[in-house]
Specification:
The chain is mostly beta strands. Helices cover 8% and strands 26% of the residues. It starts with a strand and ends with a strand.
Length: 100
């Protein structure tokens, strides 16, 4: 048996279809993987290596993103730098590159 993927444009032996970074195998039951430059990565490695990093917590952003102050943020990380409260109705002020 072989695994054929349109996203990589290649055909793989099932045991050879692994993340190119950590070499963990992709489960044949539909484990999520991402392709970058024709090479498959597990979700964890793809996010760590290629996903934008949050300006607040510095971790990879794999879902909803807010772009503010010309930087990407997790929704839950985009808070006032002083009191840590979320902004209502999108109003915030910038001071020294931080939201208030």
């Amino acid at each position: 048996a072989v695994v054929s993927t349109q996203s990589t444009g290649k055909t793989w032996h099932p045991d050879c279809f692994v993340c190119v970074h950590c070499h963990d195998p992709f489960n044949r039951n539909g484990t999520e993987y991402h392709v970058y430059e024709g090479r498959p990565y597990c979700k964890r490695d793809y996010c760590e290596m290629f996903a934008p990093k949050c300006a607040g917590c510095k971790k990879a952003i794999s879902t909803n993103v807010i772009t503010a102050l010309r930087m990407p943020w997790h929704v839950e990380c985009f808070v006032c730098a002083e009191c840590k409260c979320r902004f209502g109705a999108g109003t915030y002020y910038e001071h020294d590159g931080k939201p208030y």
